[in-house]
TrEMBL record:
Its EC number is 4.2.1.47. Residues 5-335 form the NAD(P)-binding domain. The keyword Transcription does not apply. One of its GO terms (molecular function) is GDP-mannose 4,6-dehydratase activity. SUPFAM superfamilies: NAD(P)-binding Rossmann-fold domains (SSF51735). Belongs to the NAD(P)-dependent epimerase/dehydratase family. GDP-mannose 4,6-dehydratase subfamily. Catalyzes the conversion of GDP-D-mannose to GDP-4-dehydro-6-deoxy-D-mannose. GO terms for biological process: 'de novo' GDP-L-fucose biosynthetic process. The keyword Signal does not apply. This is GDP-mannose 4,6-dehydratase. It comes from Dinoroseobacter shibae (strain DSM 16493 / NCIMB 14021 / DFL 12). NCBIfam families: gmd. It holds the Pfam family GDP_Man_Dehyd. Keywords: Lyase, NADP, Nodulation, Plasmid.
Length: 354
């Protein structure tokens, strides 16, 4: 039985990857942070009591900023594969917490790679690094591929740039089977609530249920290549199974504006928007009754923005046999339906406690 260690197991991708690896028969270990409130909702259904004899899902407390902890957990678990998904992953928040973001995302990756060296596991453990399309930043060429130059545009992207190159360097210097997956945006009903897609689908669901009238967004013109997280964790696993460690782009090859995502989400509840104004004055109205639904709020603008991301996944198609399977329309539909259910249940819980 193969053993995997997942950092960031409580996040969106950690949850989907845990499910995938358990289904493939792996013994799955995850590192989770101590928190004063619950942070394990996405993986609670996978929890197994420590007293169960054939337990295949085990949590370890840990933090990417604590090298002693990482060394001890890696030593204890002796994983065949490490998936380094832990990160302060919010681009806008990284402008507020740049030093912490660098510590967790950049130096954290180094700490994990060093743990492999210190423990003499360079030849026995494969390593996956959660790299990102944010590395491309300011547009140099489109579509973006493994050979497109990087130009990071946020403290998050700059930290991930270090993590990308230290992964390449440890592969070349010490022969570690270490790969970067350069993943374009991927979403799902488990997406964090402050990323734009989930913020939109939650707000649309709340409007549908009569819980709110309108919501606020930042740059509606940004273009993203959005896929489904379920497809992307399959790609991560395929990257790690390659005989030779290399770096791969995972993307859909399509790009859409934030505005068109909003339109698609509203279409799910039968609402068509009319957009009026431009820039900070742009607003979206329900064409049926003229109600204001979406307003631009400059507080969500970023000091430096990434305007256009569109990936070229042809290397992954060719070498991994990987392709995205869920269309954007299918994903929007799944996310809105899920949020209608989630928000309806939240409302019922609140009413019970009133
Ligand atoms: P999430 O933000 O949903 O999850 C991040 C995970 O990292 C959470 O489990 C979080 O714990 C954990 N974490 C954060 N800081 C630390 C720390 N200091 N020590 C230990 N754990 C920590 O991200 P996603 O699942 O969406 O993304 C997974 C990875 O892939 C991230 O590295 C992200 O940067 C990268 N990525 C994501 C893309 C996407 O579109 N989703 C695209 C490209 C790359 P907690 O639950 O306690 O907060
Ligand atoms: P991103 O995702 O920055 O691409 O990083 P996010 O969903 O936060 O933003 C996408 C685009 O939408 C614009 N936007 C808004 N964004 C948020 N969060 N909130 C808003 O109200 C809003 N209005 C407009 C943003 O300006 C941006 O252009 C995600 C993360 O998962 C990273 O960890 C990952 O590396 C990249 O995707 C690939």
């Amino acid at each position: 039985m193969k053993r995997a260690l997942i950092t960031g197991v409580t996040g969106q991708d950690g949850a989907y990857l845990s499910e995938l690896l358990l289904a493939k028969g792996y013994d799955v270990h995850g590192i989770k942070r101590r928190s004063s409130s619950f942070n394990s909702a996405r993986i609670d259904h996978l929890y197994q009591d420590p007293h169960e004899a054939d337990r295949r899902f085990t949590m370890h407390y840990g933090d990417m900023t604590d090298s002693t902890n990482l060394i001890r957990v890696v030593q204890e678990v002796q994983p065949d594969e490490i998936y380094n998904l832990a990160a302060q992953s919010h681009v806008q928040v990284s402008f507020d917490t740049p030093e912490y973001t660098a510590n967790a995302d950049a130096v954290g990756t180094l700490r994990l790679l060093e743990a492999l060296r210190i423990l003499g596991m360079e030849k026995t453990t494969r390593f996956y690094q959660a790299s990102t399309s944010e590395l491309y930043g300011l547009v140099q060429e489109v579509p973006q591929s493994e050979t497109t130059p990087f130009y990071p545009r946020s403290p998050y992207a700059a930290a991930k740039l270090y993590a990308y190159w230290i992964t390449v360097n440890y592969r070349e210097a010490y022969g570690i089977h270490a790969s970067n997956g350069i993943l374009f945006n991927h979403e799902s009903p488990l997406r964090g609530e402050t990323f734009v897609t989930r913020k939109i689908t939650r707000a649309v669901a709340a409007i549908h249920l009569g819980r709110q009238d309108r919501f606020y967004l930042g740059n509606l013109d940004a273009k993203r290549d959005w896929g489904h997280a379920r497809d992307y964790v399959e790609g991560m696993w395929r990257i790690v199974q390659q005989d030779k460690a290399e770096d791969y782009v995972l993307a859909t090859g399509e790009t859409h504006t934030v505005r068109s995502f909003v339109d698609a989400a509203f279409a799910e509840i039968g609402v068509t928007l009319e957009w009026r104004g431009a820039g900070v004055d742009e607003k979206g109205y329900d064409t049926a009754d003229g109600t204001l639904r979406v307003e631009v709020d400059p507080r969500y603008f970023r000091p430096t923005e990434v305007d256009l991301l569109i990936g070229d996944p042809s290397k992954a198609h060719r070498e991994l046999g990987w392709r995205h399977t869920t269309t954007l329309a299918e994903m929007v539909s799944e996310m809105v339906a899920s949020d209608i259910k989630v928000i309806a249940e939240e409302g019922e819980r609140r009413e019970r406690h009133d």
